[in-house]
Amino acid sequence: MDSETQLDAKQQAIITIAAFTxxxxxxxxxxxxxxxxxxxxxxxEIKEELAQLYAYTxxxxxxNGMGAFMGVVKERQAKGIKDVEGPEASPIPADLDRDxxxxxxxxxxxxLDEVPPPxxxxxxxxxxxxxxxxHLFADIFARDVLxxxxxxxxxxxxxxxxxxxxxxxxxxxxxxxNTGFTENQMHAFVEVMNAKVDAKQAAIAKKVLADVLAKxx
Length: 217
Description:
CATH class: Mainly Alpha
Oligomer: single chain
Low-confidence stretches: none
Strand content: under 5%
Shape: globular
Distance between the termini: 21 Å
Number of strands: 0
CATH superfamily: AhpD-like
CATH topology: AhpD-like
Number of domains: 1
């Protein structure tokens, strides 16, 4: 299977940008950022991806990635390259019930039609559950610069290039498929990780994906 036929150039760029941001590999991130812009990602789409990644990789990695992107944009401008800025996020309604909205988004990502009862970890530490619902899945996911599908693609790429995050990768590979990615596209995701990021990390992701597909099937 050829990954080029399963994930387009923009999607592949989302993967490499997220992966190198997560690992802090700025020297490899810069070419990935250029490739993303060349593939047609807007400046605001890439900024949105880098901003979202703080929730998974921490502010230091996200801010370092943003700094690298600022440099790339300036270099391209100096060369006379005119990249598309792209739309800003639409205003979020002031009366949005962020807790309810975030709970529904998470349920959808989990493949559920209804919000399930709290799990043990949610009962053990309710505040982190509030952060997830109200901030990650509401404040961030409600922003329409990126689709939920694009956000999950960035998330799995970041998690796949980090250590000790297999449990989270397991969940988000399933979530990516629940947003619309096919089984073949998830195999292609692993191929892109193997070809463009890191073979060792791709092998781990391949194993986790096999477990996800076994459970779904």
